[in-house]
Amino acid sequence: MREDTRTRIQEIALRLFTEQGYEATSLREIAEELGVTKAALYYHFKTKDDIVAGLVDLRVAEIEELLAWFRAQPRTPEARRQLVLRYADQLKRSRYMEIARFLERNQTALREHPKLLRMREVMLELTTRMSEPGDPLATRISRSMALFTLHAGKWMAHDETLSEDEITDASVEVALRLLEA
Amino acid sequence: MREDTRTRIQEIALRLFTEQGYEATSLREIAEELGVTKAALYYHFKTKDDIVAGLVDLRVAEIEELLAWFRAQPRTPEARRQLVLRYADQLKRSRYMEIARFLERNQTALREHPKLLRMREVMLELTTRMSEPGDPLATRISRSMALFTLHAGKWMAHDETLSEDEITDASVEVALRLLEA
DNA sequence: GTCTATACCAGGATAGAC
DNA sequence: GTCTATCCTGGTATAGAC
Question: Sorting pLDDT into bands at 50, 70 and 90, what band is B31?
């Protein structure tokens, strides 16, 4: 089971990158927690960036799929509703939520990363397609905020009595209301 | 006019930190653009973090003032409306918008910074005070999103035909609607 | 195929000369 | 008020042990 090492590197890296930030986490820290030297990481990943690429691949694939689906829909209220529900559904799967959180917290550090550039492109097209160019600006902003609201749990995370599911459901409610502008 | 150097360091740093990110910007870059060596910067600022502290001081003071005012208000719809309008007004002054943008883009890199910790505390208390603890979760999320929406211009920045003012006005409109949940 | 030892260069920081 | 010299840490590259 030598395959394990690669996976364990990713797990440790994801946790540390999220907790401390991408640039603040050194390869030495990751290697130490794994019980190897930092050079060993270079056998499994070409660069530090490459570790990130491995992490976001699945998330990128998912969101690309969502865009492909949305492109095939007419620009109707029902399609927008479906988009919000599907997006929320993706986030609900815990693995993707972790990666989404990691991405949110390291936008600037990773702004040049090809995978992240692609994610931004996709998000931009998704939000753009949620309105017609002729719609009032407030409408366009409101609808864009809908997707963003689904990530909002992090500001509510302080209230320990709430479950992840309760937060998701309430966020979806707010997001759907934003669509009606 | 030796005071100039300090100010010029701050201007260059703010621009580079915002464009490239805090950690991605080296002191050597800043020093080079200013025409001195990086050691010279250490005469004006004790550390790299210290440059940030100088930048955010004004913004922190403003937001503290806003919190003090909001604390003195009853929890009424009108007070919340006023809060949104005052917050939007602060952002409108270009200097603060620049700094707000810088802060948004470097949350993770600066997560340990005392000034930033304080800002997060203030934002949390502001959003918490926008609802009663007994309010439905969706209501609390919706009202929290109101303040956040005022920063939303960055996702709209791609549409070159829009002025900053138009974006602000439309964002305020969406924010006020979020209060009515 | 998996890892260690070692070296290189860039970046933040400090001490001390001018 | 600014510079030189120096130190430590971090990402990266390679040679070679097993």
Answer: very high
A108 contacts B22? CB cut-off 8 A: yes
Q: Name the CATH superfamily for B1-46.
A: Homeodomain-like (1.10.10.60)
Please give the pLDDT value at position B1: 43
Q: What are the structural domain ranges in chain A?
A: 1-46, 55-180
pLDDT of residue B42 exceeding 80: yes
Q: In which residue are the tokens 């799967």 written?
A: A93
Q: Do A156 and B166 touch (CB under 8 A)?
A: no
Matching residue, tokens 């201007």: B11
User: How close A2 gets to chain B, by Cα (Å)?
Assistant: 33
What CA–CA distance (Å, rounded) separates B23 from B102? 12
Q: Which chain B residues touch A137 with a CB distance below 8 Å? A: 156, 162, 166-167, 170
Residue pointed to by tokens 């966020």? A171
Rounded to the nearest 10 degrees, what angle do helices A94-105 and A77-92 cross at? Answer: 100
Question: Is the CB of residue A27 inside 7 Å of nucleic acid strand D?
Answer: yes
Q: How far is CA B94 from the centre of its chain?
A: 11
Whole-angstrom distance, CA of residue A134 vs CA of residue A178: 18
Distance, in Å, from the CA atom of A50 to the CA atom of A46, rounded to the nearest integer, reads: 6
Name the residue of chain B whose CA is nearest to A24's CA.
Answer: B109
Q: What is the pLDDT of residue A157?
A: 62
Neighbours of A166 (CB within 10 A): 15
List b or e across A94-117, with b for residues whose CB sees 16 or more CB atoms inside 10 angstroms.
eebbbbbbbbebbbbbbeebebbe
Give me B57's structure tokens.
Answer: 């001081």
Contacts of B136 in chain A (CB under 8 A): 170
Residue A26 CA: distances (Å) to CA of A21, B34, B171 = 10, 30, 39
**Chain A 38-77, CB < 7 Å to strand D:** 38-39, 42, 46-49
CB B144 within 8 A of CB A149: no
Nucleotide nearest to B36 (CA to C1'): D2
Q: What is the DSSP letter of B23?
A: T
